[in-house]
Specification:
Layout: H1 3-15, E1 27-29, E2 42-48, E3 52-57, E4 60-74, H2 80-98, E5 109-117, E6 121-124, E7 131-147
Parallel strand pairs: 1-2
Antiparallel strand pairs: 2-4, 3-4, 4-7, 5-7, 6-7
Length: about 150
Amino acid sequence: MGYSEGEALILTQVQAVSGFAASTGNTSRGKYGILNQGRSSVYAILHPGPFEVAFVAPKTVHTDWTTIVEIWQRYKDDGSSLTDLEANVQLLLTRLNLYRHMADTTGGILDAMATVGGDILEMTAEGGKGPIWLKQEVTVAWKEESAISPAE
């Protein structure tokens, strides 16, 4: 399978969350330009995190991948922007907890879950005249098992 295919499965789960449908154009894999399109008040952008590889048998490898899901909430005012972000993150966590294999049909993903939520950050415009976005990162940790055929 590999990282790219696993990230695509995670994106599919994100897009199944209310407010993040693929048709709205508010989700991407590393494409930050969608924030400038103004189509939505909330966005989800995925990118790779750290990974670790371990041999568990002579021809079997377990890779512990991480995918970072950044939830971006357009800033409106002090109260509702934060509660909107919190609600969107909770919807994401609920969905990810339901799909511990990210709907993988190959059997490659052994387990997956959201493991870390980062601090909420205020993203400001040039000149620092107040926030225009609130952002929180959710780390999805997932374990993949793969078989290798050594060349030597």
